[in-house]
Design goal:
It is built from 4 helices and 24 strands. It is of the alpha/beta class and 297 residues long.
Length: 297
Amino acid sequence: MSRNIALCFLVTVACGASAYGRKLECSEHREMECEISNFTIVESMDLSEYEFPDHPHLAFGTYPHSDDSTYVVTIGKELADRLQSTEKLEIQNVSLQRMVLWPNLRSLDASHNYFFELIVEPGQNYQLRELNLSYNRFQSIEFVQALPALRTLDLRHNYLESLSFSLFDMATELWKLNLANNRLQTISTDGSLHLPRLSTLLLHDNLLSVLDASEWRFSMLQELNVARNRLRYLSMCEVNHSFPHLQTLYLDENRWECGHLNATIRQLHQLGVKAMAYYDTEDQEHCNTAIDEICCY
């Protein structure tokens, strides 16, 4: 009788240890992160047989090293629910397209993918602080409204064409915003926008012809980069009132009107703001007129 009880107990333990059938192991390539490679997740794939590591720092793939064995095209709600204990996720260069966000995630680096949809659910208390979505395919970033704890947001090299800064109304902890190398033609604001901690705003390499900062109140902004756009005019009234602690302003490779640029440079000097060229002047096309090495026309 006792032998049957013991056998039953062993079977129960074995079944409990392999509830999902296939346990995914962490590789030994990294010390602090649990790296999973040689694995594929695609749409409508049944993940019920897999047991994912219970680890606070999870990484899919071997980025920055080449890894053609790992594809995580989507992270749906089923998988997101099973990754609740993961607070930091690295998932670069694995062909990711869509992902459901879970509340406990604090840091997400999903750069270098085909990512275009980050799914947030109403009423969730998201804790995400660091978000790197660079080198992806985002055309819209409505999800930002659900992320009030954001501190850094990197959206370099995406497909944004227009953007309302009112999306950042709740992002009062944001201190760095990188929107460089998009296709931005317009940036709008619905009413006054106050981002009390924003220190760095990078808008270079876009298609902006107008930058209306009259409703912005970025009292801690120190660095503003608008290089390589199509700007002709920048109101110093806007800079003085919107960015009272500005230290560095990159202006090169725009279409500045010389009279306005000259007045702007003079007032920048009075405010102690450095007007600088972001790109190497030796690589720029020659221009007939320059003020402080900034071309104008």
